[in-house]
Amino acid sequence: MTNATSVQSLFNTIAPVYDRLNQVLSLGQHKIWKQMAVKWADPKPGSQALDLCCGSGDVALMLADRVGPFGTVYGVDFSFDLLDIARERAAKAKNGDRVQWIQADVLALPFDDSSMDCATMSYGLRNVTDIPQSLAELYRVLKPGSTFAILDMHRPSNPLVRGFQQWYLDNLVVPAAKQMGFTEEYAYIAPSLDRFPTGKEQVQLAQAAGFSQVVHYPIAEGTMGVLVGTK
Ligand SMILES: C[S@@+](CC[C@H](N)C(=O)[O-])C[C@H]1O[C@@H](n2cnc3c(N)ncnc32)[C@H](O)[C@@H]1O
User: Fold this and answer.
1) What is the CATH number of domain 4-230?
2) What residue spans define the domains of the chain?
3) Does any ligand 1 atom lie closer than 6 A to the CB of residue 55?
4) Residues 118-132: tens digit of each pLDDT
5) Taking the CB of residue 113, how many other CB atoms lie within 10 A of it?
6) 106 CA distance to ligand 1 centroid (A)?
């Protein structure tokens, strides 16, 4: 995946199977990790919370539970098809009316400077075509003193765990995707992991964007990580 149009078209294509395959890919754990990211972002009642690369809406809906009846969540993604699924889910969810779903590029956010109280991004940073620009936009729209939490997959440093990760990609994820007719679309995961910056590099990128108190927390034996920082 080299340009934004191919990323957008890939996620539109896999939208119908995205939620089911997430279950397989994470061995059913992804919602726990997403809740961890939400907790680190520290959404307060009555606040304006932003979920970047919101996809089918898991994290935005978790934020909606936290911001309460006077808060608003903005779920931003450029995949029309995933946003349609998010809207359908929100219509059935308890606090779904607290989320505004916005079709936009996270590299050029349609928000004013210093307008958001906190932000999350789950499995998005590995897919954007320009990580420094993505962090710069995040920095621009957050209010001073507010926090972001970015969850994503990683290549673990432990060779045994790394071997297990590659095994489950090859033997669980790709076969499951193949059964649903999406072999090529899911083959992108391994190369995207190989070129994704390490936790330490992500800390440096976030600091270069202007953030302070930046920490990267490895989770799930280093197969996942959450980058947390403050503007
Ligand atoms: C792996 S999915 C993650 C979806 C959701 N956050 C989750 O955790 O289930 C990555 C998402 O990033 C979105 N995305 C990638 N680059 C984007 C960009 N530049 N602007 C907006 N959305 C983008 C894709 O459309 C896709 O929905």
Assistant:
1) 3.40.50.150
2) 4-230
3) yes
4) 999 999 999 999 999
5) 10
6) 9
